[in-house]
Each structure stands twice: as C-alpha cells, then as structure tokens.
Amino acid sequence: MSEFCPGYVHAPFDALAAAFPDESAYPFADFRTEWGPIFHRGRLDGSARVLVIGQDPGPHENILRRILVGEAGRRAQGFLAKIGITRSYVLLNALLYSVYGAKGARYVSKPKVQDYRNLWIDAVISSGNVEAVVTFGGMAEKAWAGYANVHSPPSGLPVQHLTHPTFPESAGGTKAERQANTRKMLKQWNGALQVLHPAITHKDAPDSLVLYGDAFVETDKVDIPSADLPAGIPRWMYDNDGWTRRTGATVLDKRRNITVTVPDGVIP
To answer: Which of 63, 88, 199, 214 lies at a 20 to 30 A Cα distance from 79?
Structure first.
C-alpha cells in the first residue's frame, strides 16, 4: 500500500464525522446501526471534480469503513475512469448505515437523516471544484433531490441519475433476465458518459471515451485505489470481491456475523 486515506482531517468533515446521527435517526429495527456509520470514499481536500452518491453500505463496506467497494465499487470506479476521473472524486451514501429489512429507503428524506447528509454534500459542493454529480440508485437520486430542494447547486452543474451498479444481480431472475437488465443499464450509463465526458474539463486522465458493450468486461471494472482506504488494508481486499458475507443459521445470526475469508492463492 503506497498511499492510504488520511481519514477525516479536513474541516468540516472532522466535526461531521464526530457528530453523526445514531439510532435515534436510524432505528435498530430498520438499520444495522450496531456496525457503525460508513461516511465516504475519496477526496475530502476540495480537489474532487465529481460527486457520486450511492445508497447504503454492505458487508464489504462494514469491514473496510469506506463506501462503494466490492463489485459495485469496482463498477463505479470503472465508470469514473471512462470520464477521465481516476482520483478527483468523492463518494457519499444516501444512508450511513446498512439497511435491515425492506423499510430503510423511507428514511432517506427524514429530517435528521437528510439534514446531516446535506451538510456533507454542501461541504463537497462548496469547494467550487465539482464539475458533475452522479447518483447510483433510487435512494441516491432522492438524496440529491433533498439537497437541491434546500440548497442551490451551481447553475449548469450536470447531474446524471443512474441505475445502481449491481442492480442486475440484486433484481434476481434468470440468467437471461440478468443479462437483459445489464444491457439496459449499460445503455443508460453510455448515455450519461456522453454527457459527462465533455462536461468535465479537469480530467485526471484525458483519454478518448470508450463506451460499454452489452455486458461488463474486466477492463470496465477498476480496483479500488489504496489511496481511498485506511492504512494497512491488505491488497486482496481492494482488488477482489466476494471475500466477505453475512453468515449464520438464523436471521439474528446473520445480522451479528460477517465472515471474512482470505481468497485462494493469497497464502502460499
């Protein structure tokens, strides 16, 4: 790990990370509050050119303490790379805690949840450097609307509302249905790429735009940079997926336990 995330050292994020909403805003009945809040991933030093909003953290995020990692993160990272952004981004979630059950989405616009999230969004936007906003999923789109209705985003700031990166799998169905959902999602993403690529003038890697095909290929997915993660994270945690899952014989067991397994080939 040649570089790592320094954490919450920049104002006002240091104060925000110390004063997060607890179970009074995120009830235990609907959130895995016992695993703690997951705040962000990416740059908090004012250098971000793209703000990405996701949904809620999963088990990979609970372990790494950063959002949008795992397969969803690698797909999102690949999307950013296609618009020339490999470092200058910050990712926030609509919800701080992992949703438990089917009712979590209704909290996105609750005052305590929205007001706190808006402080993060406003701190990112107020740098004056953000050139585009991308939301992944319905909760993320609602989170941006909750900000835009209260604050005044910069005039002309391009905003793209996209399907969540792992929707094709989470929607279930047959293999053919998953393939069809992937084709539909990537067609939508291609439309967004063609809007965002020319709109972002300060690119990290000013390459020509390469659109998606009908399915993801490995070059469409990018490993999570070590600079986004806390110090000491082993490499297999950010260049692989599937190393953790909720386990247990009962619903309560699965809530209480996350199993982390070192992938094959790591240990000689």
So the answer is: 63
